[in-house]
Amino acid sequence: MMWLFVLGGLIASTGSPVSARCQIELSPPKVVVEYGDPFSVNCSSSSDHIEGMGWESPEGGTGFMNGVSSLPLDVDSIALWSINAQCYVTLSDGQQCTERLPVTVYKTPDSVSMPQPSPTGPMVEGQKYRVQCAVAEVAPARHLVVQWHKGDEIFSVDEFNVSSVSPLNVSSVRELTAHRDDSGTRIWCEAMLNFLPAGPQLPPMQSKSHEVIVLLSGEGCSLILKPSRVVVGFGEPVSVSCEAARPVRVLGWESAISASHTQQDLSVQWKVDSLIDWIEEPICYGVFFTAPRQCEEKLNLVLYKTPDSVSIRPVNHTGPMVEGKEYQLLCEVQNIAPVQYLTLRWYREKTEVYNHSFSDLTSSSPVQVSSILLVTPTKAENGAQYRCVAELELGPEGPQPPPTVASEPLNASVYFPPTFLSPEPEVVDLTVGAEISLNCRAAGNPTPVYSWQSPHPTQETMENEAVLTSSSLLPGTYTCTASNALEKKSKQFIVKAKTKGV
Ligand SMILES: *[C@@H]1O[C@H](CO)[C@@H](O)[C@H](O)[C@H]1NC(C)=O
Ligand SMILES: *[C@@H]1O[C@H](CO)[C@@H](O)[C@H](O)[C@H]1NC(C)=O
Ligand SMILES: *[C@@H]1O[C@H](CO)[C@@H](O)[C@H](O)[C@H]1NC(C)=O
Ligand SMILES: *[C@@H]1O[C@H](CO)[C@@H](O)[C@H](O)[C@H]1NC(C)=O
Ligand SMILES: *[C@@H]1O[C@H](CO)[C@@H](O)[C@H](O)[C@H]1NC(C)=O
Ligand SMILES: *[C@@H]1O[C@H](CO)[C@@H](O)[C@H](O)[C@H]1NC(C)=O
């Protein structure tokens, strides 16, 4: 299509004195032409002193023509997106002047559409949605105007500040808030090339229109989900049916991975063979013949995953613990979901000593969590095993018994000083020639080592045993020392000669 401006009166051309002497007129003074179309422009001069004129142009250029005062530029089919054309005039005194011809080459869009992320299904009242209008292969984009329509209303207009003159894909994006009054209206976008105030009037191109369905949540919905709550292991199949309790025009599932709808049945299934989408929130909606005309029911869906690992270790500490000191044990749980259903239970041997729940967290996708147990071991706990068990309590719809993952046990080694059964001195009667035993045995970790001190320096070297057995001891006070890495403890044995005749 070609558009020639009607020349109104004398040339509006640039007030250059030279041009003014040449008195060049272009008719029409500007061209707006569709790519591939012909156009023609007359260059003329009303000067009396004209020697000749010519058109310089990559298409339809003429060369210098002697003795003419009017010369057309004829282009059969414009095949450039921008064209630099000018008419030049030479006067008899040798002066030359030129007049540039503004040419706008346009192309109407190949298509106008509302692709994703525009909502094609029902929207939930109060939520925000992005709508996009895609205009394919239009030129020049700076003349493009996109109008957004909702029912009878134009709710937004977009223009494009783009310098490129060749065809471009452009898009206009708007954010909508779903409102109940919009339900049932249609939304579409319209693209047109605007060459106003003077230029061709091209018809606008429209995208397909979409019906806006706004779902109201809440009472009187008459949609029943069976089951109403589902608990699914990661990667497992799931199916839920949504049933309408009254005649329905459209019944469907809004879901990122498995949307479906029906216009015939009173029931529609949401079915996934292997659920792995942590953010899936399926919603069943119904569009009814009677009020409330639209409503929705959100599925209570729990996708869970047992932890990859549960491990236990002391914090900032290696080796045995010492009786009476405070230590921290750390339990780490990798990749658990949803963490709000997790309880970490700490066991010493068979006894639960602490539990930690994470119900205040909200993540639906897998996370890593940990728990710290403070312990102050006693010597009785030497050798005890600590364990941490992750339990996912997913409710009655979940697996029974609740899935658990236990850590490897942590063997507690508790150091404690040597401890005698009775630390008081012992009195031992000595019968000459009879063998006696002095028992210095003490509990302790590490196992104590013993040494003995005799009151008789000349006596043979005594062995470093817990129990001293001999038939050759002389009376006196013997001291035994039990020692380990923590402490030395001593105990005395008073060996008395047995008085005859008593
Ligand atoms: C070009 O303009 C001249 C002078 O106005 C006129 O005589 C002539 O007919 C025009 N030619 C065309 C092709 O319009
Ligand atoms: C158009 O874009 C240019 C460069 O990006 C900028 O300088 C100019 O201000 C913009 N004009 C409008 C109307 O936005
Ligand atoms: C416009 O989009 C179409 C389809 O996506 C593509 O084939 C074409 O190359 C794009 N054109 C430009 C100028 O980007
Ligand atoms: C562990 O030790 C590091 C460095 O010694 C210290 O910064 C950190 O606070 C300690 N952690 C605990 C739980 O005591
Ligand atoms: C956690 O421990 C507390 C007491 O320590 C106990 O009352 C509670 O029942 C335990 N919670 C669970 C879920 O076992
Ligand atoms: C922990 O103790 C158990 C039994 O008391 C033993 O079988 C196991 O080997 C010990 N583990 C380590 C790592 O010492």
From TrEMBL:
One of its GO terms (biological process) is cell adhesion. Gene3D superfamilies: Immunoglobulins (2.60.40.10). Residues 307-406, 417-496 form the Ig-like domain. It comes from the Eukaryota. InterPro entries: ICAM_N, ICAM_VCAM, Ig-like_dom, Ig-like_dom_sf, Ig-like_fold, Ig_sub. GO terms for molecular function: integrin binding. Keywords: Signal. Residues 1-20 form the signal peptide. SUPFAM superfamilies: Immunoglobulin. This is Putative cell adhesion molecule 3-like.
